[in-house]
Amino acid sequence: MNELEEFKNMAMNARARAKRNYERNRAEILEKKKVAYRLAHPDPAPRGRPPLSKNLCDAASKTDSPPIIFFSV
Fold it and tell me: If you ran DSSP here, which 8-state letter would residue 49 be given?
């Protein structure tokens, strides 16, 4: 019986170790994917208030209506 219990403990330890390694590797891979995505797709809008769009100003200047004045609050 002693050998059987020792074998069970060894198997349970190996399974727990494999699970810990899998979770750690998975977390590392996900972090690397996040970093790679951020590098490939930079944030188009800076943090805080985005700058006024050039296209919006161009569209406002091409209309017959009086100019639109944008205020930043």
Answer: S
Element (H, E) at 38: helix 2-40
pLDDT of residue 42: 74
d(CA 64, CA 73): 27
Q: What's the total number of domains in the chain?
A: 1
pLDDT tens profile 28-54: 999 999 988 888 887 665 566 555 555
Separation CA 52–CA 24 (nearest Å): 44
Domain assignment present for residue 8? The answer is yes
pLDDT beyond 60 at 67: no
Q: Is position 15 within any domain?
A: yes
**What is the span of the domain harbouring residue 22?**
2-61
**Percent of the chain clearing pLDDT 70 (strictly above):** 56
Asked if 51 and 59 touch (Cβ cutoff 8 Å), the reply is no
